[in-house]
Write a structure and sequence with these properties.
The chain has 487 residues and is of the alpha+beta class. The protein is 36% helix and 18% strand. Among the domains are: 9-92, Phosphorylase Kinase, domain 1; 99-161 and 175-268, Orthogonal Bundle (Transferase(Phosphotransferase), domain 1); 394-485, Roll (Nuclear Transport Factor 2, Chain: A), CATH 3.10.450.
């Protein structure tokens, strides 16, 4: 039964009245419990047309997972009954809107109010994690607001730790805008992904918009999450550092749900959010789940680790050794060549010590010209080339161009970070132009063999006039491991 036709009396006890929504596995009905005389919510959880046995097992897992939780901020499960041979879930009826509809109708919450809401949901999720259950679909539409208390519902795709993974056929479970970066690229959806999704939910509550706006289709949205930082919040106040950690690509930096709970409770009580969770030690290269170097920096970047004690001593000793070697070489040359070669010896010594003063340009005209050219094009010199190499694959170049023009009309801060330093010279003009563009589409993308030159046809849709089509060519450069548009 998949339509909204009233199914009548369910399990000989629950009298359906009207559909009140749709969950992850079907229509949710308002019903009356004829035995206890109370309203309940019903949802069919199995035996849909074309549904496999594995999918029915997945649906039944919701009943087991939700029934195992007894928390004031979780929609209670009362019963599992059968009707015409199919299982139905009997749940607590919450007379109130979802967080999603409440925010869209009433506007965003205050930082303190959003922290209080987030703390209550974190408490529910911490209890779920303690029971070995990962929700896997935390989002505003699954938060019900009733009686002044938020309740997390729809454990329709929750998975207990001991259950088999039932998405091996490629089924995408969850909502794209609320999937953590590691999940967006096909990685494991663990407890840290629930922390990320709760952070995105709190972000929506305090900002009134998603941290990652929809890109028009699920795959484009997932690619945006995997490749870009979230847009910086404007109203979060004291919540901003907590959200920055919860929405970090570093799963260790997010912290556990219990740690998040304590930080949110602190802000709700008027505090500062407590001590941030220490991130895992940084390693060379991006985390394993990132397919390529991110094209922008998170809005609250992680600080580099402090230097270890004694580092200055080794630097001083090294500098002394170099100085002694240079002096020794100069002295030996002067002794062997005589006083008449003094000027040549001085020049030789200066050349030998040049590597210790590379910040100063050479005095020769040719080298100076080369230094200026390198600076103007924002391309790395041979001595500072990234370990990834200068070349950019054609797929990387094509993806970068598509990502840039899909981002620039929705999040100019993130798009600005995708430009090279020399292109970041007129932010006011940049904002003025792109604020007048509703959308821009890319087509006919042509990439050079080395991936550093891209030609593309752009179809602009301005907000106040007809669309226009232009052909442009851009130069891309890999700077510090990240691709940037440099010309």
């Amino acid at each position: 039964m998949t339509d909204d036709t009233t199914p009548g009396l369910i399990g000989g006890r629950y009298e359906t009245q009207r559909p009140i929504g749709r969950g992850g596995m079907g229509t949710v009905w308002l019903a009356r419990d004829t035995v206890l005389g109370r309203q309940v919510a019903l949802k069919q959880i199995g035996d849909f047309p074309g549904e496999s046995e594995g999918e029915t097992r997945r649906a039944m897992r919701e009943a087991r997972a939700a029934a195992a939780l007894n928390h004031p901020n979780v929609v209670a499960v009362y019963d599992v009954t059968e009707h015409d041979g199919t299982p139905w879930l009997v749940m607590e009826y919450v007379a109130g809107p979802t967080l999603s509809s409440a925010i869209r109708e009433r506007g965003p919450m205050t930082p303190k109010g959003a922290a209080d809401l987030g703390a209550q949901l974190a408490g529910a999720l911490a209890a779920a994690h303690k029971a070995g259950i990962v929700h896997r679909d935390v989002k505003p539409a699954n938060v019900l607001i009733g009686g002044g208390r938020p309740k997390l519902g729809d454990f329709g795709i929750a998975r207990a730790g001991a259950d088999d993974q039932l998405t091996q056929t490629g089924l995408v479970t969850g909502t794209p805008s609320y999937m953590a970066p590691e999940v967006a690229v096909g990685g494991h959806h663990g407890e840290a992904a629930d922390v990320w999704a709760l952070g995105a939910t709190i972000y929506f509550a305090v900002e009134g918009k998603d941290a990652y706006p929809s890109q028009g289709n699920a795959l484009a949205t997932l690619r945006s999450i995997a490749s870009h930082p979230p847009r910086r919040p404007e109203r979060a106040g004291r919540l901003e550092p907590v959200l920055a950690d919860m929405l970090s690509r570093d799963t260790a930096r997010r912290g556990t749900m219990a740690q998040v709970l304590r930080r949110l409770e602190s802000i709700a009580a008027g505090g500062t959010g407590g001590t941030p969770v220490a991130a895992a030690p940084t390693t060379a290269g991006p985390p394993p789940f990132v397919p390529a170097a991110p094209t922008g920096q998170p809005y609250a970047p992680q600080q580099p680790p402090p230097r270890r004690g004694g580092g200055w001593l080794w630097a001083l000793l090294a500098a002394g050794v170099v100085a002694l070697l240079v002096a020794g070489i100069a002295f030996a040359v002067s002794r062997s060549e005589g006083n008449d070669a003094g000027s040549q010896t001085s020049s030789t010594a200066g050349t030998t010590s040049a590597p210790t003063t590379t910040s100063e340009p050479s005095t020769t005209t040719e080298t100076t010209t080369q230094t200026q050219t390198t600076s103007e094009t924002s391309e790395p010199s041979e001595s500072s080339t990234s370990s990834e190499g200068d070349d950019i694959s054609q797929d990387e170049a094509r993806t970068f161009i598509e990502d840039y023009f899909s981002t620039v009309t929705s999040d100019r801060d993130a798009a600005w970070d995708m430009l090279g330093p020399k292109r970041q010279n007129d932010r006011a003009g940049y904002d003025k132009f792109w604020s007048g563009i509703e959308s821009v589409e890319t087509s006919d993308i042509s990439v050079s063999d080395d991936g550093r030159e891209v030609s593309v046809t752009l179809t602009y849709q301005p907000k106040d006039r007809d669309e226009s089509v232009e052909q442009h060519t851009y130069e891309l450069t890999r700077i510090d491991g990240s691709i940037r548009m440099t010309k």
